[in-house]
Amino acid sequence: MRKPLAAAALAALLGSAALTVTAATPAPPHAYLYIGWPNDGQVVSSGKPIRVWFGLRNMGIAPKGVKYPNTGHHHLLIDADTPGPGVEIPNDRQHLHFGTGETETTIELPPGRHTLQLVMGDDQHITFEPSVQSKKITIMVK
Questions:
Q1: What is the set of domains in the chain, with CATH numbers?
Q2: Does the keyword Signal feature in the UniProt annotation (predicted)?
Q3: CA distance 7 to 76
């Protein structure tokens, strides 16, 4: 497992030789990630699955575990903050992984205001440097 660069600085200060640190995967130049649907400010009906589709330019999609230059896979963040560059993306109800290369999904959310954001992870679910992330959008479920 790779650690963020901050861990390298901490290891140097503490003199720990046991900590393994690897730099984040460099992001391809001009990579652009976006949510194609729903739109920012969209009102959607509760009780129905919400279709979310992902857009990506200037970068390719590869499944988890496949290390190929300038590729990664999507992670959808629901009501969560984006991890910084070089950080492993958690795998829980707020951080959905699409490690087989999916470019859309359906989700169900309770009524209320929710934020959605995409972030690309490398072959090991580590964010790129700089981070490749979409704009955070807000939707209302009624």
A1: 25-141 (2.60.40.10)
A2: yes
A3: 25
Token output for 82: 């984006």
Structure token digits, residue 85: 């560059």
Structure tokens that stand for 114 in this block = 């929710």
Amino acid, single-letter form, for residue 1: M
Give the whole-angstrom CA distance, residue 44 versus residue 73: 26
Instruction: Tell which residue, 120, 142, 126, has the closest CA to residue 38.
Output: 142
pTM value > 0.70: yes
Task: In whole angstroms, give the CA distance from residue 120 to residue 76.
Answer: 9
SS3 string of the chain? CCCCHHHHHHHHHHCCCCCCCCCCCECCCCCEEEEEECCCCCEECCCCCEEEEEEEECCEECCCCCCCCCEEEEEEEECCCCCCCCCECCCECCEEECCCCCCEEEECCCCEEEEEEEEEECCCCEECECCCECCCEEEEEC
Q: What are phi and psi of 32, to 5 degrees?
A: -135, 120
